Amino acid sequence: MGLRVLLQCLYYPPEVGGLESHVAGLGEGLARHGHYVDMLTSRSQPRLKAKERMAGVNVHRVWMPGKTPLGWMAHTLATLPLNRRLAREADILHAHTFASAVPSLSTVRRYRRPLVLTLHTSHFLMRASKPRWRRIFTRIIRSTDYLLATSEEILNVALEIYQHPRSEVMTNAVDTDRFAPRAGREAKGRRRIVVPRRLFPKNGVEYLVRAMPLIAAELDVEARIVGDGPERQKLTALAAELGVAERIEFLGARSNAEMPELLCDADLAVIPSLMEATSIAALEAMSCGLPVAASAVGGLPEIIDGGVGSLFKPADAEALAGAVIALLERHDLRALGQEGRRRVVENWSINRMVERHLEIYNGLLDERQTQAKQDKQIAAER
Predict the structure, then answer these.
(1) With a threshold of 0.90, does the pTM exceed it?
(2) Rounded CA gap, 6 and 91, in Å?
(3) Cβ(226)–Cβ(254) under 8 Å?
């Protein structure tokens, strides 16, 4: 008999991003293994249904007024009644991000369900040093039965706040069947870089644009930037100012289904982030057999080294250009991509992630059963 798992996260597909891919991969993977999965999330786009079934996952969407801290707070409070109703039938509660954990804090006490928390993204890191937020995080982390984090950096910061006795890194995972090598472009003529980054300052796309004149001085190269955001106008203007507008194509936001083809149609992926957990975009590129040049921040050094690509100093256009040029001039570029693919399949596939989650869930449930038997026995002896 399968488990009933209640997942809660601010965002879920069709929203695009590493957080969304991680949670969808987990939910769909659990469903494929025969478990009943409820996903409690936001109605973040106006045309989304309040309830629907997606790839075996029962998705429940609750009002959210905007994608801002105040909007997140209002959404979190609005989910309390539905969280309580769904949790009554669940075996395991699993919150993704600190905001999504808040509704389950009272539910845990009421129904005595195990609570797992996964910390994602730079939003946690940016707030972790502030005393007011540290007090909030201490309460949330202390209330969970198991703590997961998507990078060593995030986990270490969380453990500085509260030394949770059960914790581990749970790196983002990839659907290695969907993100797989396929016939791409011929390695002739202009070389192509793909930059799968949304256009926000923390993603460092500005430094890729600033590096393009330096790269183009050595190699005939073009870049495709896949993602949208508030910096788009600024970045297109910068590309024109630097004389590389015809070498940079801004493709805007693309669906997850389109990404494998876009990745396989490039020679190299670049992740120029200034802050990062473990980049799902980098892992997806590696899974497609693509070498990756990435800034040495956050969880990126945990997945990328000289065997699969290169690391460079963040916020440094010259360092970025040097890494890209050095990689594109290598004769064994394809071998780097093959090694990246091998590592993802071996260590960061969806199946491996789901199996580890099930080990954690079942371990917590076994503990609860054992404790319940002991409590019953003690009561009978009185």
Answers:
(1) no
(2) 8
(3) yes
